[in-house]
Amino acid sequence: MQQQAFAEFPLNNIASPPPRERFLTEMNRVIPWADFVAAIEPVYPEAEGPGYSLLTTEVGRLQP
User: Fold this and answer.
1) Domain residues of the chain, as ranges?
2) Cα 61 to the chain's mean position, in Å?
3) Which of 1, 29, 32, 43 is exposed most, by the fewest CB atoms within 10 A?
């Protein structure tokens, strides 16, 4: 039997997801993003000029 190179070793079942991915998965389980956006969209102020819309906020960019 030939020795397996490190690059060939399957790491996908050993490595845990990064903290960011665990956080986003847990948050999506607690409050699904689509439901959250639908709930706050009617009262979220519309951006005028150089402002940001709801989906371009920092939280929106975190979604995988």
Assistant:
1) 18-62
2) 8
3) 1
Are 10 and 53 a contacting pair, CB within 8 Å?
no
Q: Which residue has the higher pLDDT, 40 or 13?
A: 40
Take residue 19 and report the two structure tokens written for it.
């903290």
Give the number of other CB atoms < 10 A from CB of residue 24. Answer: 16
Torsion from C-alpha of 13, 27, 18, 55, nearest 10 degrees: 120
pLDDT digits (tens, 9 = 90+) for 15-62: 788 899 899 889 889 988 888 888 888 887 776 666 566 555 555 555
